[in-house]
Design brief:
- The chain has 577 residues and is of the alpha/beta class.
- It has 4 domains: 203 residues, 3-Layer(aba) Sandwich (Rossmann fold); 154 residues, 3-Layer(aba) Sandwich (Rossmann fold); 57 residues, no CATH class; 125 residues, Alpha-Beta Plaits (2-Layer Sandwich).
- The protein is built from 21 helices and 20 strands.
- Strand 16 and strand 17 form a beta hairpin.
- Helix 3 crosses helix 4, helix 6 runs parallel beside helix 8 and helix 20 packs across helix 21.
- About 12% of the residues have low confidence.
Length: 577
């Protein structure tokens, strides 16, 4: 369907044409007509489907320009996404004279935002925390808000914004249009819709449309210690100029960034610990190409909209399958062909199969190049660069310089050898560097998993069959959900560690949970160190995790409304010893 057939105003149609759009995407075709009627709507849409315009165009058409007040409020999970949405809405409303769009979020001067709000903003796009700040200060007048839109509602719930969202919704006028957009329609989303929406229309994009046809998808089967070396080979062999690398934790982002710098690349990092000033500077460098590799976590990368990204590299397989689509959707945009590469260890093969089933796509296995193939590629690439330099018009300058060096006893062959050493040094001594990274990587890998889950040391970790080792000697009095007693092998008595609390987690072996999954989720979401996590017991339907008492509240808050491998989790303090 064409946009001109959707009943839009001439000004909006002109703006749509100016940005190069003509035909509506499936989510736009299904949702825009409904939203224009003022009905509530819950929509399922992934990154790259055009969902911003799906709710943005109706939001613009919703505004009454004769009223100088906020009429539409859009909530986003991150500052980056709030900026992206507001930028898109400004483009789509540029011919609506007098319509003002404002983004408000933490990390920026609230005084400046207060000034802008006093001047008037018809559409406010913001993060939940900063919106509540303005409501509390009464600098955001909610009395005229007749439309509220939650963008990426599932991500906001995963990030722990449920209470903030509910507070905002209860402080808005009852007579309003409530719109939810989410990558999935999980039970928490549907519960939110049931409580705050009035007979909403539910629009689902079929899963077959989740696959991004403009992205070629590959995976490499690797060891953890090989990952950074493989990334550098991917960059070289595919001649990548601008790329995103995703890691599951903030700590891993910094480690990978440092390692890539050691390989001579120019990466920058982005994660939740960055200040707003740092985040803005990072994105400016990436957009300008002064840094061509952005290493990021999933949450920090929400809202990144940079054209010309050659490839996405999944350094870590995403903890949540849905994030795979979010990640690779950063490349292959605007009809251009992109590539994605996922680094998979032997223990993660099943995750790859889950991703393929979810996306209904085949991810092709790529073979790592041999050392001889890599050397041949480097030689050819260098020869091409040399030939290009020799064709440049100012080559005589350098010929004259060679003559000067010759007079000093330095031959052209010696100069050429020196430059070859510099250019090819990463191939001349890969064993030494790989051993160095492998040593550091193994130590860090064990640290990310609590320091005790390496295959070579099972003394204090769970056995591969999921039962406890001799040191895991207790069984609590919980029943299975179906009411039956567990038929676990009786355990030997154990001595409780008085310095540690024991947490019950409602995921286990049947959910394909590993100790690394639990440690990665706790460390990434609760911002603790993997080495602070103690004993982990994994059973069929549940697990137990030991933590220092002073970290319990932090972990329980950080994991509230979060998932491990796509499964919503519940954490309780276990009294059984």
């Amino acid at each position: 369907m064409l946009f001109k057939d959707l009943g839009l105003s001439p000004e909006v149609l002109e703006a749509i044409e100016s940005v190069g759009y003509s035909e509506a995407t499936p989510i736009q075709e299904k949702t825009i007509p409904i939203l224009l009627t003022g009905k509530d709507l819950t929509g399922q849409a992934q990154t790259g489907t055009g969902k911003t315009a799906s709710f943005g165009i109706p939001a613009i058409e919703h505004v009454d320009l004769s009223i100088n007040a906020t009429q539409s409020l859009i909530l986003c999970p991150t500052r980056e996404l709030a900026l992206q949405v507001s930028t898109e809405l400004k483009k789509l409303s540029k011919f609506k004279k007098g319509l003002r769009v404002l983004a408000v979020y933490g990390g920026e001067s609230i005084e400046r935002q207060i000034k802008d709000l006093k001047f008037g903003a018809h559409i406010v796009v913001g993060t939940p925390g900063r919106i509540i700040d303005h409501l509390d200060r009464r600098t955001l007048n909610a009395s005229n808000i007749s439309q509220i839109i939650l963008d990426e509602a599932d991500e906001m719930l995963n990030m722990g914004f449920r209470e903030d969202i509910e507070l905002i919704l209860t402080r808005l006028p009852e007579q309003r249009q409530t719109v939810l957009f989410s990558a999935t329609l999980a039970p928490p989303i549907l519960a939110l819709a049931k409580r705050f929406q009035n007979n909403p229309e539910i629009i689902k994009i079929e899963r077959k449309e989740l696959t991004i046809s403009t992205v070629e998808q590959f995976y490499y089967l690797v060891r953890n210690a090989q990952k950074t070396e493989i990334v550098t080979q991917i960059i070289d062999l595919n001649n990548l100029q601008l790329m995103l690398i995703f890691c599951n934790t903030k700590r891993k982002v910094e480690e990978v960034t440092d390692e890539l710098k050691a390989y001579g690349h120019n990466p920058i990092s982005l994660h939740g610990d960055k200040t707003q000033r740092d985040r803005t500077e990072v994105m400016s460098k990436f957009r300008k190409g002064t840094a061509n590799i952005l290493v990021a976590t999933d949450v920090a990368a929400r809202g990144i909209d940079v054209t010309g990204v050659d490839a996405v590299i999944n350094y870590d397989v995403p903890l949540d399958i849905e994030n795979y689509v979010h990640r690779i959707g950063r490349t292959g945009r605007a009809g251009q062909l992109g590539k994605s590469f996922t680094l998979v260890t032997n223990d993660e093969k099943y995750k790859l199969r889950d991703i393929e089933r979810y996306t209904k796509a085949t991810i092709e296995k790529a073979e790592t190049p041999t050392r001889q193939e890599l050397i041949a590629y480097k030689k050819d690439k260098l020869a091409t660069r040399i030939a290009a330099e020799l064709d440049k018009p100012n080559i005589q300058i350098w010929t004259n310089l060679l003559e000067e060096y010759k007079e000093k006893g330095i031959t052209a062959e010696q100069i050429a050898t020196a430059f070859l050493v510099k250019e090819m040094k990463d191939l001349a001594e890969p064993e030494r560097r790989e051993r160095s990274f492998e040593d550091r990587g193994d130590r860090r890998d064990r640290g990310d998993r609590g320091g005790r889950f390496d295959r070579g040391d099972r003394r204090e970790g769970p056995r591969r069959d999921g039962r406890s080792s001799d040191r895991f000697n207790d069984r609590p009095s919980f029943r299975d959900r179906d009411g039956g007693e567990r038929r676990e092998r009786p355990a030997r008595p154990r001595t409780p560690n008085e310095n540690m609390a024991r947490l019950f987690v409602n995921v286990g072996r049947i959910d394909r949970i590993s100790p690394g999954d639990i440690v990665g989720a706790f460390a990434g979401e609760a911002n603790i160190k993997g080495s602070q996590i103690g004993q982990i017991d994994i059973f069929d339907k549940y697990s137990f995790v030991e933590l220092p008492h002073d970290l319990v509240d932090q972990v329980m808050d950080g994991m509230r409304n979060n998932k491990i491998k796509g499964k919503s989790i519940n954490i309780e303090i276990s009294n059984g010893r």
